[in-house]
Design goal:
Elements lengths: L1 E3 L1 H8 L6 H10 L4 E4 H15 L1 H12 L3 E4 L6 H10 L7 H13 L3 E3 L3 H6 L1 E2 L3 E2 L1 E2 L5
Parallel strand pairs: 1-2, 1-4, 2-3, 4-7
Antiparallel strand pairs: 5-6
Helix pairs in contact: 1-2, 1-3, 3-4, 3-6, 5-6
């Protein structure tokens, strides 16, 4: 499974986004299942509603309904870990959605991610030492 961040979903939905073509090409050619988290889904819905309106938001939720991607649920036992991560990266700062993706990477045992965020996911480490590999922005 490949981790999908907010920026990937927004780029996929918005033809005017500078990363739209990359996101669209990836979505059309990958054979791997995508996975995200509820904090990311919430962020995507908020941004799509604000930028493109209710139709874009509903189209995204339709993808979720049809099983286009999986959702990782943050275990209750990881509440402390979320806090620790957000505190560790206060200089960026790290938001709740990004912290949930770091936990997801730790759960999956890899950091293969689709993100338009070059800075943060270049800086974040899962298991404190492992870098993310951004499959969308291979630089």
């Amino acid at each position: 499974m490949i981790i999908a961040d907010t920026g990937f979903w927004i780029a996929l939905a918005d033809k005017k986004d500078k990363h739209h073509q990359e996101a669209d090409d990836f979505a059309k050619t990958t054979t791997e299942k995508l996975i995200s988290t509820y904090p990311v889904i919430t962020e995507v819905c908020h941004i799509l509603l604000k930028r493109q309106g209710v139709k874009a938001q509903l189209n995204f939720i339709k993808m979720y309904q049809l099983g286009a991607f999986e959702i990782f649920e943050i275990p209750k036992t990881d509440k402390e870990k979320i806090f620790t991560l957000m505190q560790q990266y206060t200089d960026l700062p790290m938001d709740f959605a990004d912290a949930s993706l770091v936990l997801l990477a730790e759960n999956l045992g890899h950091g293969r991610i689709l993100s338009t965020d070059k800075r943060d996911f270049h800086t974040y480490r899962w298991k404190n030492t492992q870098p993310f590999s951004n499959l969308l922005l291979c630089v």
